[in-house]
Fold this protein.
Amino acid sequence: MTETIANPPADSSAPRRFLPLLLLLFVGSGCAALIYEIVWLQLLQLVIGSSAISLGVLLGTFMGGMCLGSLALPRFITPRRHPLRVYAALEIGIGVLGVALLYLMPLVTRLYVANAAQGLIGLLLRGLVCAACLLPPTLLMGATLPAISRWVESTPRGVSWLGFFYAGNIAGAVTGCLLAGFYLLRVHDMAVATYVAAAINGIVALLALCMATNEPHEVIVSPPPDHDRSEASVPQFKNPATMPWKGDYGICVTIALSGLCALGAEVIWTRLLSLLLGATVYTFSIILAVFLAGLGIGSSVGSFLARCAVRPRLALGGCQLLLTAAIAWAAWMITRSLPYWPVDPSLVWSPWFNFQLDLARCLWAVLPAACLWGASFPLALAAAASPGEDAGRLVSRIYAANTVGAIIGALGASLLLISWIGTQQAQRLLIALSALAALLAFAPFLLAPFRPENSYSQSASQNDESSHSHSALVHGFKIVGVVLLFSSVAYLIAWSVPKIPWGLVAQGRYLATKGEEGKLLYLGEGLNASVAVTETHDGVRNFHVSGKVEASTDPRDMRLQRMLGHIPALLHRQPRSVLIVGCGAGVTAGSFVVHPGIERIVICEIEPLIPQAVSRYFAKENYSVVRNPRVQVVYDDARHFILTTRDKFDIITSDPIHPWVKGAATLYTKEYFELCKQHLNPGGLVTQWVPLYESNLGVVKSELATFFDVFPQGTVWSNDDEGKGYDVVLLGQTDSGQIDVDELQKRLERPDHIFVAQSLRDVQFKSALDLLATYAGRGPDLAPWLKRAEINRDRNLRLQYLAGMSPNIYREHSIFDEMVAYRKFPEDLFVASDDGKLALRAAIERSKAGK
């Protein structure tokens, strides 16, 4: 016997009066859930890293917890309990655990660091940390929909309300995504965002309890619907197309494939759209919000269809069939249409105009497919529902199947498909799987005997085996024909999916205005990023990642890359070990190869394609650094490596990507610089690249102020362009020290430093004086200028939100002029003869004047 909710019935006036309010509660629940998800993922990435593997573990744990929660509730919570009280308890639990996680994270970090390991053990430890932090709250999140679904019956009207609840939850998720991405984390921090989400949980729980007090709940016991009919009972159905086809397993597999394709496509399209729009936190928020909005719109439409459709399974199959075309549409738009829209993001200084264009482009490409995936869920519920069934169990199995598929799709696309077969073939595979999902949905209608009201009865009455065999053969040919038709259509649609244009990887958001300049030398879609190597007509080679140039053989870039290596290597008394954060073209790492005293060079790179494939195109400039026996390449998120390694170094040099790229701001935080300081040997030095272009004054001030907060006596070294700002190198040390100008020149003249001197001459540093003339300021001198600057911390990551507002702004000249206005000649920093000091002072002044 199965308990089913009978009071109040879904069609009575009482619950109909409360159903819109329940819908509003689910909006609040979804809003809080998305805020938590964004905050928790940022918090845990600081612990286990932000590589594709770490993100896969995080996402799998988060969604897995929701799946388990959905399955667990109807099995452990009896229908006799008031659904609204259960729902309120779940919301309270989510809020309590959300706040607790915020305060327990430092303890989790210490435990993880104390037991950190490499290889399989390290991966298992990451999974354990994610499970301990995420499973308790996500189990409760996953249980909310099955809990509240017991307030309605599994009738067409009741099932349609379940679809509306799901749509309301998604609408709340869209709100939470935009609220967190554009306000809470931009203006405040993770703590404030968590408190807001917890407050929403509390309000939702309070309203649910008030409703439960005013509306009693009764349960009657009724026989469960018969889903396990034997094969012998099949003939009693007049229309075999309406028979249960192995229960609702076919529907579960169909909705699982739908979830797989949805999350797989979201991962792929996010990768491609981030190249087109710029990989800022705002871009990711816009993409996610559009995708969720499509799911919500589709779910609402699907709920209406579920209420009136005679055969919701046919509608479910129709959605999957239409998705083959919708996926191809998105693929074509993202790679062949949107990149060539006449949009120049640098024309406006206000980012809000560009955000509107980004939103429009995302809607144009992604919304059709997202709506169809959203409609699939309520239609699957309607197709699987049976009168008298516990609605909680119905929602549980359909939601769990959809979530399992989503987990497989997200992990499969991010960890396997993109790096293995590329985005083009991955999207073709999704089209094929959508066609398969459609076939599974249509299977009962295809497998039903042709004209069943005649074939079975005639065979039974006339006992004509040959006639029955002929009918079966004809029907078999019919099935084969339908399958071939589906396969042909899917193949033709999949064949239309174009390759990713290399200009999109190289030029990104400026492809429409710059075009595909030069010639392509290499294009690769890696585990964490898409990369390209190009060569211009004048022979300059460029390394592109995230739709922008990250390194090149351009004189300005070569100068900067050599400075990051040679400045600390020459100013350190006896450097022996070096850590390079970010391989890039390998030029900075290669700068250490020519220093005779250095015995160990560790390169930490998150994308394996870069050292393995990209660096060989710059072998001359990087001295074939990757092949050098002193070099060890570690494939990991640099923040995670420094957090967990027990090694210490004489020099740490960091050349990360721009801070406006999502995730990069963790390499500009106070806590990161403190980690670097802890991993320096006595007398150790750290250098950090800071770009002045594609930035604004507030961003640069934040970067410098955060660095000088950890290294108060730190210095700034300018890589200017004829006296005009371009980018700078920050230098910090574990103790205060002086720079002996004469000794440095003698060192460069030694026979064992002949290759060091040549490396410097290659970038127009003909002497130690030329190198030291790039001095642009010191922490104490710049303190008045940086007085009100934001300090970038792990718990606010303010920098990525500040920088995300200015990736299309080029004010490097004015920023540099403001900074060097505070520069003073540091008499106590440089040690030299009187003539040497005069020469250095004059060289610095000439550098400032661009001479």
